[in-house]
Automatic annotation (TrEMBL):
Keyword Signal: yes
Descriptive protein name: Nose resistant-to-fluoxetine protein N-terminal domain-containing protein
A Pfam family: NRF
UniProt GO molecular function: acyltransferase activity, transferring groups other than amino-acyl groups
Nose resistant-to-fluoxetine protein N-terminal domain segment(s): 97-250
Transmembrane segments: 261-283, 371-395, 415-434, 479-499, 506-525, 586-610, 622-643, 696-718
Alphabetical keyword list: Membrane, Signal, Transmembrane, Transmembrane helix
Signal peptide per UniProt: 1-30
């Protein structure tokens, strides 16, 4: 090794050592030089932060050898400690606001006296760049709560701690092709930084975030100017540095708005009415108080019954056996919902500050990681189920009573059932969500979501949010509800043709399916989009900013394929029921083999597009994107056919298990609320998350539990009552049938005769 090379290594090691010890020592030197009374208008920071003490025999000093190298070592120590000291959270430039300048002087004076409030502000601030920067930890979040809890009156001045998260961008001067960094330890750090900035499967290290605790009178511009001054004094070799966004927040309570009061009033009134209805139900169910109840067929009685918690719990826990054997649908819904929650947990957590980004980077190279990375395909299962049920149930309905098949009523029925509970969740997002938590990233995560909801909530209620203002999507998972609603609008028309004009109906359904496949191909090819939503690290942090997400993943016309495959499956199942057709056992076994190959082949084939050496080809991407939804839909469709016809084998009892049936009835509300629960956790984090399979699975299990508990409450309080009201007002001739249906369902679980009257008493 050459002498120059050796000298560079020594310099580097010394800089690292001094970086660890210089911060504390220079803080002491700085505070000894500053008072509130003689603070000069402007003094360069180097006059406060000097390394003289390191040459005065301090216990922190590094003893240099008494030879010709002493001057060089001393110069290196001084230069390094000066750089380190500049990252202390002091705003001393004369360019800042007067109050900021004044309060900073007070802060430094009290810090010199070791006053608790000033010490807490200093303690809450990050002292240097994040530990493990090159391993992917780009956040040094300090101590958020310790900072914002500072409140003090000092010399007739009120000073409050303000938490500021500063973004520093480090840009390589030139772009070079990235390569594998495995077992490469002797390359330049800046070259490594440059490579990571351009690899989509790697986390960018060129943006670091450092937290400062400063007086509340210092705005983000003041802090930004301070940081710009620091960066100008840092030697920049092969890189350029700049200050990005500076986001500051205090502990000041947010102002309440008329929207907050309106939302809470609606919740309060509904809870009061539900309590009264439950009391009425329980009170009049006792034989000694039966004379207080209204007539069973009266609207008053039926409305009160609809809002009764006890009645809705009993409805939720009934397990009527149907002649169609479609209980497997419940299992598919529940399992798919659980996997979607797990996938969103990975998205939210891995898109937040984490300590070991290399975990994700290593994760992308694994074939088994496609269970998570290709998880978005699971949403197609819901489209398949929705299309299947729409076609099958509408065919059953029109077959029983062709004259009662009124298409506009189906649209009203769907809107009334979906919208009220949906509106409650959106109302929570727009009003109370931002007020129930805090954290370094609370405004960046939750605040941004609330801002989007303020702008585009009306597009959600009209179910057009996947086309209108998709860049302002309120509730990231809500695009699915809009897609499913659009597709349902076509279902009654197609079903009517299938029943009255079978040949025309079959042709129309086949043409629509073919058109959906071609549309997906065309959009992908013409827009040069990815074959599907590739959840790279950058996408995880802000999916809505991804072009493929907005142009391919959420529009209805590119997601229609599995829905119409589901409708075809519903048509086949309806014909099988009417003809009593039984599937040959050899066909069953061969179909199961093909189905398993299709499902797992679709799931794991996505690995090709995550390979580091993958070269984009628009035609290949478009062809894969157009066809892989067909293969997945075919595999799931066979599962529905097989299990519903008694050919499900060991899968059938799992999908038809009674607790799963109950939980599947909560999937809609769980779908609505799980995103908010996960967003709350990532918005309120105080330190970077350590990613591991165990931690992510543990969090996912908690998400599933909390999501279904919240869904249970939403279902009992809003969804079930609205369904009851819809039956009362939109089926005025069938009020008694509504009561009889409840009695029939309850009797199907073998309730004892003496208890039956009490359970069904109005």
């Amino acid at each position: 090794m050459s002498n120059s090379r050796c000298t560079d290594v020594v310099k580097c090691r010394l800089m690292i050592i001094v970086a660890l010890i210089g911060s504390h020592y220079n803080y002491c030197r700085a505070t000894q030089s500053v008072t509130a009374t003689n603070y000069p208008p402007y003094v360069h920071q180097d006059q406060y932060f000097r390394s003289d003490g390191l040459r005065d025999g301090s216990s922190f000093a590094i003893q240099a050898p008494d030879d010709g190298n002493r001057t060089e070592v001393q110069r290196l120590l001084e230069r390094t400690s000066n750089i380190v000291s500049k990252f202390l959270p002091f705003v001393t430039s004369a360019d800042v606001h007067t109050q900021c300048y004044k309060h900073t002087a007070v802060y430094l004076t009290q810090l010199d006296d070791f006053q608790l409030w000033a010490t807490k502000m200093f303690d809450a601030s990050a002292k240097f760049i994040p530990t493990g920067w090159f391993d992917g930890s780009t956040y040094n979040l300090g101590n958020f709560d310790e900072c914002v809890e500072v409140e003090v009156f000092e010399r007739d001045d009120y000073i409050q701690g303000q938490y500021c998260l500063v973004e520093i961008e480090i840009n390589p001067i030139a772009h070079s092709k990235f390569r594998s960094r495995k077992h490469v330890f002797n390359e330049s750090s800046w070259d490594t930084l440059q490579e990571l900035a351009f690899d989509p499967n790697k986390s960018m290290r060129n943006r670091i975030y450092i937290a400062y605790c400063v007086p509340h009178t210092c705005n983000s511009g003041d802090v930004s100017k301070h940081m710009e001054g620091i960066l100008r004094d840092i030697p920049q070799k092969k890189i350029t540095t700049s200050v990005g966004t500076v986001k500051c927040q205090t502990n000041t309570a947010l102002q309440w708005t008329w929207g907050d009061y309106t939302f809470l009033s609606i919740i309060g009134v509904s809870l009061v009415f539900i309590s009264m209805s439950t009391y009425y139900d329980l009170f009049t169910s006792m034989s000694s108080f039966e004379h207080f109840k209204f007539s069973e067929k009266s609207k008053k009685h039926l409305i009160l019954q609809s809002f009764s918690l006890s009645k809705n719990v009993r409805k939720l826990l009934t397990f009527p056996k149907t002649s169609d054997n479609l209980e497997c649908i419940h299992g598919l819904k529940f399992i798919s919902m659980c996997f979607i929650i797990v996938g969103h947990r990975f998205m939210f957590s891995l898109g937040s500050p984490i300590m070991n980004t290399n975990f994700i980077e290593y994760f992308y190279s694994k074939l088994e990681a496609m269970v998570i990375l290709n998880g978005p395909i699971l949403v197609d299962t819901f489209f398949i189920i929705s299309g299947f049920l729409a076609c099958y149930l509408l065919l059953e309905h029109i077959q029983k009573n062709p004259k009662a098949f009124q298409i506009p009523l189906f649209y009203i029925h769907r809107y009334v059932r979906l919208t009220p509970v949906y509106a409650i969740v959106i109302g929570f997002y727009c009003t109370m969500f931002i007020k129930i938590g805090s954290g370094p990233l609370w405004n960046e995560k939750v605040g941004l979501e609330v801002e989007r909801c303020h702008e585009s909530w009306w597009t959600n209620i009209l179910y057009i949010n996947n086309y209108i203002k998709p860049q302002k999507l309120c509730m990231i998972q809500s695009w699915y509800i809009a897609c499913d609603t659009h597709l349902f609008l076509t279902a009654p028309i197609i079903v009517s043709l299938l029943y009255h004009r079978p040949k025309i109906g079959n042709s129309v359904l086949a043409l629509i399916l073919a058109a959906s496949i071609f549309t997906t191909f065309f959009v992908t090819y013409s827009g040069k989009l990815d074959a599907f939503l590739l959840v790279h690290i950058k996408t995880l942090r802000n999916p809505i900013a991804n072009k493929t997400f907005r142009s391919l993943y959420i529009p209805t016309h590119t997601r229609a394929t599995p829905y119409y495959v589901g409708m075809m499956t519903g048509l086949v199942r309806h014909k099988m029921k009417n003809t009593s057709y039984k599937i040959n056992k050899y066909v069953v076994w061969s179909s199961w083999i093909v189905s398993i190959v299709l499902i797992f082949g679709t799931l794991f084939s996505a690995w090709w597009f995550y390979k580091p050496n993958y070269k984009y080809d628009a035609f290949v991407a478009a062809l894969y994107g157009a066809l892989y939804r067909i293969t997945w839909a075919a595999g799931v469709s066979w599962t529905i056919i097989a299990v519903s016809t008694g050919n499900g084998g060991f899968i059938e009892p799992i999908l038809c298990w009674k607790p799963v049936i109950t939980l599947s009835r909560l999937t809609y509300c769980a779908f609505l609320c799980h995103g908010g629960l996960q967003l709350y956790t990532v918005g309120s984090i105080r330190t970077p998350f350590h990613a591991s399979i165990y931690n992510l699975v543990w969090l996912s299990l908690g998400d599933i539990t909390l999501s279904f508990l919240a869904a249970f409450c939403l279902t009992l309080l809003y969804e079930s009552p609205i369904i009851g009201l819809e039956k009362i007002f939109f089926n005025p001739g069938n009020k008694s049938r509504y009561v009889n249906d409840i009695k029939t369902k309850i009797s199907s679980i073998n309730v004892k005769p003496e208890k039956f009257k009490q359970m069904t008493a109005p």
